[in-house]
Amino acid sequence: MNDFNKKGSKGFSLIEILIALFVFSVTIASVFMVSFGNQTILMNLKIYEDSLSVSQFNLEEAKARGRFDFENLESGEEINEDIQENLEVSLLYDYTKEIKSKVRKLNIDLHEVELPLYVSNWRDAIGGDTCFRRFENSENYEILQTFPLDVLNEVTDIDVVRGKAYITIDSIISPNFLVVDVSDVNNPEFISNNFGSGRRLVSLKVAGKYAYLATGSTARQLQILNVENPASPQILSEFRLPEPSSTTTQSSIFYKDKKIYLGSEKNNWGKEFHIINVSTPSAPQYLGSFRVDTKVNAIAFKEDFAFVAVPNPTPLRVLDTGNYQNIQSINSYEAGGLTQHGGQTVAINDNLLAFGRSVLSPGPTYHEIFLFDVEGGGLNLKASKRLGFSVRDLILRDNILIVASTLGTVNKIHFLSLDEDNLLDVIHDIDLPGKPVAFDCEDDKLYVLTSNSNTENSLVIIGKNND
Predict the structure, then answer these.
(1) Which of 222, 266, 310, 455 has the most CB atoms around its CB within 10 Å?
(2) Residue 442 in contact with residue 465, Cβ under 8 Å?
């Protein structure tokens, strides 16, 4: 009996040993697996950490480049050894780009690291277009509201900024500067309709909290208003052009990079194109001028090149303003026709320029609309169009050219296609209740100043009817 117990005890101990060895081996294997697994996790975390650092660096570098060269901030790809770096840049809105910095370790099955960023070009946004870049379903546009302005003298210009329409009037008596709240297109209302600047107003541009006014006065050609409180505009400063250029009145204005560009009526003794530094609005400084030798009806800019619409025989001129003290005329376009058929308006979107001119008696071969490629200050004609109307103003976006025109008693807004297959085809038009004087757009709405007579001036709001 004792022998049996001894043998059984010995056999049981062997089994225990075998079980113990099995458990030990499983435990050791698990430890090794966990240990090596942790090492893999740590290695992957280090790769993600390095990728994140590279992605953040690329975003900061792109942001810095965007501040100084926003227009040329574009997508790109680099492969450095075994790391792939992608920068995806897309235009989100006017003056705002979306940037995605993506970094991926090659030859390893890991997800890429992606960081987003938005960069805005505030320098150009101040005083720049506030329209959407594309106007979709333009065939559905119609007049949403006609708002009487109740002024005795003719309206001259409009600039719509952040839900407010700023309007100038050809009058020396009050009011000659209006502010209308258009944030609710169904219920526009005056914010200010009793302010007078004491001079006839011809044109304006609003940038930040200032309104820059071109006047019809030979005493002061530029007025600067503080409109931070739009209900109570204040004259901040006035500026007189140097002799003999001050002997004529103004006809147009443009704002860019804290500089005002004034266009004058033809001056037999002085100059008609002027550059004024308004970085300190309370103390404008004269920078330079150029003799165009004719009236400057409109001004548009790309880089340092000024494109000016003037009367015939060469109704479109290009000026290089890189040196304010030595402005050069570098290009022009001769469209033909009578002197009265001169250039009226010009607009630029990227490298595309739209130019419109007037007409007294439209003929079958007379074109009023022209499109140019203006890269590098050039004037390469892409297309032209006969409308049969005098062009008063125009707006150029990515996919559409919008034209305000008049002839006799017929007044219209035309929507022209910019698709290559049907370039400048009229895809929609709207009859206006009066002669268009000027117009502007904000978001996807159009704001047109119209006049039937000095006592019938209106603000016409155009958009898509959502009913």
Answers:
(1) 310
(2) no
How crowded is residue 210: how many other Cβ atoms within 10 Å of its Cβ? 21
- Asked whether 122 and 95 are in contact (CB, 8 A), the reply is yes
- Euclidean distance between CA atoms 380 and 333, whole angstroms: 10
Residues 6 or more apart in contact with residue 447 via CB below 8 angstroms: 158, 160, 165, 182, 439, 440, 441, 459, 460, 461, 462
Q: How far apart are CA 249 and CA 264, in angstroms?
A: 6
**Number of Cβ within a 10 Å radius of residue 117:** 17
Answer whether 297's CB lies under 8 Å from 290's CB: no
Residues 374 and 371: their CA atoms lie apart, in Å, by 9
Task: Using the structure block, give the residue that is written with the tokens 């509201």.
Answer: 145
Rounded to 5 degrees, φ, ψ at 338 are -75, 165
Give the global pTM: 0.78
Quickly list DSSP for 137-160.
SGGGEEEEEEEE---SS-EEEEEE
Q: How many Å apart are CA 370 and CA 335, to the nearest integer? A: 9
Report d(CA 317, CA 292) in Å as an integer: 9
Q: Look at strands 435-443 and 130-131 and give their pairing.
A: parallel
Bridging pattern class, strands 457-464 and 141-148: antiparallel
The residues facing 290 across adjacent strands are 273
Find the angle CA(8)-CA(13)-CA(14) to the nearest 5 degrees.
Answer: 100
- Report the amino acid identity of residue 307: F
Beta strand 316-320 with 305-309 is antiparallel
Compute the distance between CA of residue 182 and CA of residue 338 in angstroms, rounded to an integer: 40
pLDDT digits (tens, 9 = 90+) for 169-199: 999 999 999 999 999 999 999 999 999 999 9
- The first and second tokens of residue 466, run together, are 């959502």
Q: Do the Cβ atoms of 83 and 107 come closer than 8 Å?
A: no
**90-138, pLDDT tens digit by residue?**
876 556 788 898 988 887 777 788 888 888 765 555 666 678 888 989 9
CA atoms within 13 A on the CB side of 19: 6
Structure tokens that stand for 63 in this block: 């942001």
Strands 390-396, 400-407: pairing is antiparallel
Question: Cα–Cα distances in Å, from 205 out to 42, 190, 216, 227, 344?
Answer: 59, 19, 15, 12, 18
